[in-house]
Write a structure and sequence with these properties.
This protein is an alpha/beta fold. Helices cover about 45% and strands about 15% of the residues. A 15-stranded mixed beta sheet has the order 4-5-6-7-11-12-13-14-15-17-20-22-25-26-27. A 4-stranded mixed beta sheet has the order 19-21-24-28. Helix 11 packs parallel to helix 13.
Length: about 850
């Protein structure tokens, strides 16, 4: 009996010893395997960078291998991050088995002290072993099928250097701006169609075709192409024009995209071989108009960089969206690891310029604020190309999952009041979907913007998605974001967007997210407490607007990766600003502060400390006593640091800072409710050398007349926005604003009689005067028809008066000639009360 028991125990001990040795070997190899993965990641990164620089058409073998490399690199990055986060801080110290010759004693001790961390460590070790095997298989597969990597020829290297040289040219942006203006002549044609009628446009199109004449925007744009592609570019455009006659909107868009591609990539055309191949396809008599336009898009797509192609394919996740914020799009790309700055420009700038993305809304200065993700023929083309490049019949898995998430969110927005009781069902479906994702799948982005029915249990489940980098709760009905739900979670989060929500001010105060880069908060309210919409909508309105937002996190100084902090409430003593002064990566800061001396001191210390990185500053000043002194954020130090600030937005009683004249890169200044002296403010602002856009909103200054005199010369000013309730007259003298292109007036509830703008003859670059308010569109259309007839009969149009109606969301444009040197609101053209 004893022998049987001894044999049984011996067998158990033998099995246990073998298991312990295997476990020790598995865990002991973890650091070595991690080093192998790290080396492989470096090699993969170099391989992908090399393929990016070749910029040639890759065959199917190379593209399939690139896909495998991307997948392995994606999982490898995941494992490295998990190793650094979960294993390294808790790694067992080296040991000698406590003198017993048992090397696994330390692992056993670690298991007893940290059972959860031990399990994470063991699971990661197994995944890395599997990943190492997969890496070896990818390498063997390359040799087995003879996949060769295209070399970077001397010609390609030379063209890369020329691209970088052009990008660094100080005059390049000026040339590109001239090229854009040539393309904008197409929009002038669209304006003509509204002014002169569709029949005139059709007749003009027939005349152009009969004369074989291209539109003005085409001729002007071709003339601004690089010299060595200008001739063949003109020939190709002419062939497209003839093949696709009569031209429709898609034809014009195709031509515009082609011109932009030729302008952006003249040195990527290998001795014009790609261009010549496309030209031969145009000569093919069997190719119809649709095939020609498709081939043109293929050609334009081939000239995109690898990063730009990846970003463009990612847009298929927004197929159901009407528009998406440009900055949100860029942050999502960054969270997915798709973006990097290329020759000083971000991918979305290039994709907008190339015509693959259409702007949906732009600022008064022309900056794109939101985009239509994919539209028209581009939509069909990109869906097809996303499947082709990833060797699937439909969209690749990661895009398909993002679409699934957005579909669930959009479904919550269409629920009726009767569905409120079941409002949690779509979100329960989303939580179940997230829980069902494969363990090796890394979800970086979760956009719940506009979602309804979001409960605390859903937030709790979302916070368990440990690899989340981008979380958008914007415009949701969430009312709490309890700090306990975030404690120790979402440690990889880079973007937290809680704008236009009712989250309690104190919920964010105690959070600490070590990797956070962008914290976006704030809800705009009218004086009556109603939602006032977005910041841009609030800025253009004459109504009083307040900003309700969350309190500044107390540990903000430890979030050293912070780049955007907008907008957060600062306490009365402004003590949290001491931490903000330590954020040396901060690019955009928006704060709501109390108008007292202590806060002013803290704020100008922040500006001084961050002078080398801060590019955008927004200050909202609140006063419990409306008669209180204005906030002064000027420097007290004699030596002013070099400021790289580009945007300054001040709302509330605040003085114009003393350093503003030395902010040489400051391009946009917006003032609202500041109560400044008008002429003194203009006298100081005219010395800001780069000021191109000036916004003077509600009660920004005292006085009814705003005079731009010859001695107050704004050399760079291109856009001027002012409030009609505050300003009774805008007056210009000679040389006061030689580059002013656009004047925008927000017509308020009361319209003052007389001339609104005088001295227009002193504005040689003026293109449009835009009025926004409640207009009598019927009366304005009558004036438009009369003005159009008179203009065609006598003198050409010098500038346009555009009336944007806030109620009907329509506009009417009335042409003006060189004799129109003053401007006043037409009698009967508005629905507001007139005061004379």
């Amino acid at each position: 009996m004893a022998d049987l028991t001894t044999d049984a125990v011996a067998k158990v001990l033998g099995v246990l010893a073998t298991a312990i040795k295997d476990e020790t070997a598995l865990l002991g190899a973890l650091p070595r395997n991690m080093q192998f993965i790290k080396d492989e990641m470096d090699s993969m990164n170099g391989f992908l960078l090399h393929l990016t620089k070749t910029e040639t058409a890759h065959d199917d073998q190379v593209r399939a291998w690139m896909k495998q490399i991307r997948d392995v690199a994606y999982i490898g990055e995941d494992c490295v991050d998990r190793y650094v986060r979960d294993v390294v801080p808790h790694e067992p110290e080296p040991h000698n088995g406590c003198g017993l010759g048992l090397p696994y004693v330390g692992d056993l001790k670690f298991f007893l002290c940290h059972p959860k961390k031990y399990c994470l460590r063991r699971r990661l070790a197994k995944q890395i072993v599997e990943l190492r095997t997969r890496v070896n298989d990818v390498g063997d597969r390359r040799q087995r099928y003879g996949v060769t990597v295209p070399s970077l020829t001397p010609e390609l290297a030379r063209r890369q250097q020329e691209v970088e040289k052009v990008a660094d040219d100080a005059q390049e942006e000026t040339r590109k701006d001239a090229f854009r203006r040539a393309l904008l002549l197409r929009q002038v044609g669209s304006s003509a169609s509204s002014l002169l009628g569709l029949g005139w446009v059709k007749a003009k199109a027939r005349q152009l075709l009969a004369d074989n004449t291209q539109p003005l925007f085409v001729r002007e744009a071709i003339g601004k192409l690089p010299v060595h592609v200008r001739s063949q570019g003109a020939t190709i455009v002419r062939d497209i024009w003839m093949k696709c006659s009569p031209p429709d909107d898609e034809t014009f868009r195709c031509i515009e995209m082609l011109l932009c591609a030729l302008y952006a990539c003249p040195y990527k055309l290998d001795s014009n071989v790609e261009l010549e191949m496309f030209r031969r396809k145009l000569k093919d008599g069997a190719a119809g108009a649709e095939e020609i336009k498709r081939q043109a898009m293929v050609f334009c797509y081939s000239l995109l960089s690898t990063s730009q192609k990846s970003c463009l394919q990612y847009l298929t996740a927004f197929l159901e969206e009407k528009a998406i914020s440009r900055t949100s799009l860029v942050r999502r790309w960054a969270a997915e690891g798709l973006v990097g700055r290329e020759q000083g420009r971000t991918p979305e700038e290039e994709l907008v310029f190339r015509g693959f993305i259409n702007p949906a809304r732009s600022s008064d200065a022309g900056t794109v604020k939101s985009c239509h993700p994919l539209a028209g023929s581009v939509r069909t083309f990109i869906i097809h190309i996303a499947g082709r490049d990833n060797f699937v019949a439909d969209l690749p898995v990661h895009l398909d999952r993002q679409i699934r998430i957005r579909q669930i969110v959009l479904r919550t927005q269409t629920m009726t009041t009767r569905d409120d009781a079941a409002a949690g069902k779509p979100m329960d479906e989303l939580v179940a979907f997230l829980g069902g994702l494969p363990e090796m799948y890394r979800l970086n982005v979760l956009d719940l913007g506009g979602c309804r029915g979001l409960k605390q249990r859903h937030i709790k489940a979302i916070c368990t998605v440990s690899w989340l980098k981008y979380l958008c709760l914007r415009n949701t009905d969430i009312s709490r974001l309890k700090p306990s739900l975030l404690k120790g979670r979402l440690t990889m989060l880079e973007t937290l967007d809680i704008r236009q929500t009712n989250i309690r001010p104190g919920d964010i105060k105690s959070i600490f997210l070590p990797k956070l880069k962008h914290l976006l908060a704030g809800r705009y309210l009218t004086k009556g407490g109603d939602d006032a919409g977005t910041a841009s909508a609030s800025a253009s309105a004459s109504d009083e607007v307040e900003l309700a937002t969350v309190e500044m996190p107390l540990k903000i100084g430890r979030m050293r990766n912070m780049e955007t902090l907008s907008h957060v409430q600062v306490s009365r003593d402004g003590k949290e600003l001491e931490g903000v002064a330590r954020l040396h990566k901060l690019r955009k800061l928006g704060v709501v502060v109390h108008g007292n001396e202590r806060t002013a001191t803290q704020l100008h210390e922040v500006i001084y400390a961050l002078a080398g990185c801060l590019r955008s500053l927004s200050v909202w000043v609140t006063h419990h006593n409306q008669q209180g002194a204005s906030l002064d954020i000027s420097f007290q130090e004699e030596a002013t640091p070099i400021l790289i600030l580009e945007n300054l937005d001040i709302r509330g009683r605040c003085k114009l800072p003393s350093w503003i004249e030395r902010a040489t890169k400051l391009a946009n200044v917006s003032l609202r409710d500041t109560g400044m002296n008008a002429q003194e403010t203009l006298r100081r602002l005219c010395h800001v050398p780069s000021l191109s856009c000036l916004t003077l909103d509600r009660r920004s200054f005292v006085g009814q007349v705003l005079s731009f005199m010859e001695e107050v010369r704004f050399e760079a000013l291109r856009f001027l926005i002012f409030d009609g309730d505050t300003t009774g007259r805008l007056a210009f003298e000679a040389n006061a604003a030689p580059k002013l292109e656009k004047i925008v007036c927000n017509v308020g509830s009361v319209v003052h009689g007389g001339d609104l703008i005088v001295g227009i003859q002193h504005l040689p670059k003026l293109e449009v005067i835009e009025l926004r308010g409640n207009f009598n569109l019927t009366r304005l259309r009558e004036l438009m028809n009369g003005a159009t007839t008179a203009t065609n009969a006598s003198k050409p149009t010098r500038y346009l008066c555009r009336y944007l109606d806030s109620g009907e969301n329509e506009f009417v444009e009335i042409p003006k000639t060189g004799t129109d040197t003053t401007f006043s609101l037409p009698v009967g053209g508005t629905n507001q009360q007139n005061v004379f």
